[in-house]
Amino acid sequence: MSWYRMALENGTELLETWEGNRVERKAGLCIIAFLDVDWAYWEQQCDELRSGNTKKVWKPAALLYQRLCNEIGSLHPVLEVFARNQLIGDIKNLLMERFTADTNIPEWRYVDALEKGQPPVKIQEELPRLFLRQWSGRFSAFTAIQKKIVVLLDAVYDNTEKRKDLSVLQRYYLMRQENREYPIMSRQLYATLKTQFRLSIDGKLCEDEDPCVVASFDWARLAEKNISAHTYQTTDHLEALVLWELDDMAANGRPMRRCDYCGRYFLPYSVANCYCDRPVDGNPEKTCKEVGAATKHQKEVNADAAKNLYRKVNNRTQQAAKRYESKHPDVRKVNYRNWQYEARQLLEQVGAGTLDYETFAAAIDKTPKELLGI
Ligand SMILES: [Zn+2]
Question: What is the dihedral of CA 27, 195, 115, 205, to 10 degrees?
Fold first, then answer.
């Protein structure tokens, strides 16, 4: 069985948590969470412990693991699987290979305590140094792949330079033509993905060997159950899911953006949303968005986006007014002019910074019939 299982459907990630429950997240969040972890920092923490001056590492190693679970695991369900299932799996494999399958030895009780978040029991130094080395290798590999993923994302989502007039899909096409790393990475990582078609019942994935939840003749009870079926990709390589999601996001033209304050990737909810919701470094009470909302930059972005939207909506409303004129004689001279007057006033408010883009868009991005009141 593989550690990770994810489906991507219509901009949603369907995931299995470390405890085996099905959850959903917005597509793109798996990539963002993977990029948000400072893998090099965790690599350094492991290396310092196993090769530094610390004489007894069994306890600090356990504390490090618990901190890692809390800090990484809270970012995304796949990272929680990584921390709580895969890293523990590494230790169990070492135990089987190098030690013994006898679960009464202190080493097995140590792993058991780590798994359950309990205080660890004292063990010899050999095992902690072995698993710290193995984890360090994983973090080091993730640091390298993280750098490559950022290059790919930048190529697809860079809208600041000369490619700003291209669509996400067009930039993705160019990235696939130009990037030398992409073919190597995709060949290696896609080879680790296996397709599974799985049923779930009341939000829980059905294992084929499960005893039947509802007897097939009990149709009334079956009707109470929520059954769904999805195509999942399973893998032991978290980074393969990240690359696959990147391909899916880009191919479907789904937006991602670098925050104009902290520079990290996030999922924007509108064309004018240029700051993320992360807490600001050094001021955790505030988010980038709160800090950025009042800036000149955000006002300019709002004003530009509002002007573009106004132009588009005005064109289609004016054309519609002309078309409806034979049926509604006043529609162009009265209804359209009134609407245009109001819309321009709102546009001025956006320019002055008293109205945000999202409120403006919600007020004017409607069908011509709604706007003209016919
Ligand atoms: Zn930010």
Answer: 80
Q: How far, in Å, from the CA of 294 to the mean position of ligand 1? A: 14
Number of residues that make up the chain: 374
Whether residue 200 contacts residue 22, with contact meaning beta carbons closer than 8 Å, is answered with: yes
Q: Over the stretch 27-47, which tens digit does the pLDDT of each residue have?
A: 999 999 999 999 999 999 999
Domain ranges of the chain: 1-254, 296-372
The model scores a pTM over 0.70 = yes
- For residue 327 the two structure tokens come to 């049926």
> How many Å lie between the centroid of ligand 1 and the Cα of residue 277?
6
Q: How far is ligand 1, taken at its centre, from the CA of residue 266, in Å?
A: 8
Q: 29 CB contacts (<8 Å, ≥6 apart)?
A: 13, 76, 267
368 Cβ contact list (under 8 Å, min separation 6)? 316, 317, 319, 320, 321
pLDDT of 213 higher than 70: no
Each residue's pLDDT tens digit, 152-204? 999 999 766 677 889 999 999 999 999 999 999 999 999 999 999 988 888 77
pLDDT digits (tens, 9 = 90+) for 333-354: 899 999 999 999 999 998 888 8
- First and final C-alpha spacing in the chain: 60
Q: Give the span between the Cα atoms of 264 and 276, in whole angstroms.
A: 8
126-157 and 29-36 helices cross at what angle (nearest 10)? 120
CA triple 96-102-105, angle to 5 deg: 100
CA dist., res. 254 & res. 306, Å (int) = 21
Q: What is the DSSP string of 305-357?
A: HHHHHHHHHHHHHHHHHHHHTTTSTTIIIIIIHHHHHHHHHHHHHHHHTSS-H
Residue 13 corresponds to which amino acid? E
Per-residue confidence band for 211, with pLDDT thresholds at 50, 70 and 90: low
Q: What rounded mean pLDDT belongs to the chain?
A: 91
Question: How far, in Å, from the CA of 209 to the mean position of ligand 1?
Answer: 46
Q: 222 C-alpha to center of ligand 1: Å? A: 47
Whole-number Å distance, alpha carbon 322 to ligand 1 midpoint, is: 45
* pLDDT of res. 199: 87
